[in-house]
Amino acid sequence: MNYLYLLLNLGSISIPFIFSFHPKLKFYKLWKPFIISVLAGMVVFIPWDIAFTINGFWGFNSNYLLGINLFNLPIEEWLFFICIPYACVFTHYALLYYFPKMELSTKTTKMLSYIFIIGFTVMALYNYNRWYTFINFSIAAILLLIVLNKNLDLLKGFYLTFLVILIPFFLVNGLLTGSTIKNEVVWYNNTENLGIRLFTIPIEDVFYAFSLILLCLFIMKLKERSALQY
């Protein structure tokens, strides 16, 4: 089934894309800042992805791929950085639209942020010899520190919406890492991560998703603010 990864990407974005034209949500009006945010995310995550693939820290099962590669990455992996952020960012905006009170207090948000930053930093330093763990938690700590200082309001809602986003995340990433299929679509070298799995998903993937989505939202909010100033 060499189109499985492609189907997962398209399936992830299909419903959010359709509902982007909902007369109340009108998410299509945010496509410009979203595209900018995705490009910014690719600047960070694509080189990381390429380097880890080349060095065998993770890789892809050709049985589930179309066989089209760009800079050592399957075309499906490039689409991943468009489809998954789109679905997640749309979900974040939709949840806050329908549940505007779905946010934490300033005090709680700050407290959680400092706990996460300290925790991410400790995990990175303690696991400096595991590349996926080290890079993952380092980026999460740095990004969260920046967002905390630049846009605290974003974090008030994001911490809660991310918990909801984790539900489809486990479904999609579970399939990618081997749940319900014979072999995984994406495999991992466990010497470069903690070796802890949530079902079939390396625990680092949760924080990878955390950083990817938060970066996209942060850039989008910056562009929205810039637009409002003109």
Helix-strand blueprint:
Blueprint: H1 4-19, H2 31-54, E1 58-60, E2 69-70, E3 73-74, H3 75-98, H4 106-126, H5 131-150, H6 152-176, E4 186-188, E5 197-198, E6 201-202, H7 204-228
Antiparallel strand pairs: 1-4, 2-3, 5-6
Would you give an account of this structure?
α2 packs across α3 (75-98) and α5 (131-150) packs parallel to α7. The strands form three sheets. A two-stranded antiparallel ribbon has the order 1-4. Strands 2-3 form a two-stranded antiparallel sheet. 67% of the residues lie in helices and 6% in strands. The radius of gyration is 18 Å and the shape is globular. The protein has helices spanning 4-19, 31-54, 75-98, 106-126, 131-150, 152-176, 204-228; strands spanning 58-60, 69-70, 73-74, 186-188, 197-198, 201-202.
* Unreliable parts: none
C-alpha-based Rg, rounded = 18 Å
Distance between the termini: 50 Å
* Molecular shape: globular
Total number of strands = 6
Biggest sheet overview: 2 strands, antiparallel
> Share of helix among residues?
55-70%
| Major sheet strand order | 1-4
Descriptors:
mainly alpha; two-stranded antiparallel ribbon; globular
In short:
The protein has seven helices and six strands; from the N terminus they run ααβββααααβββα.
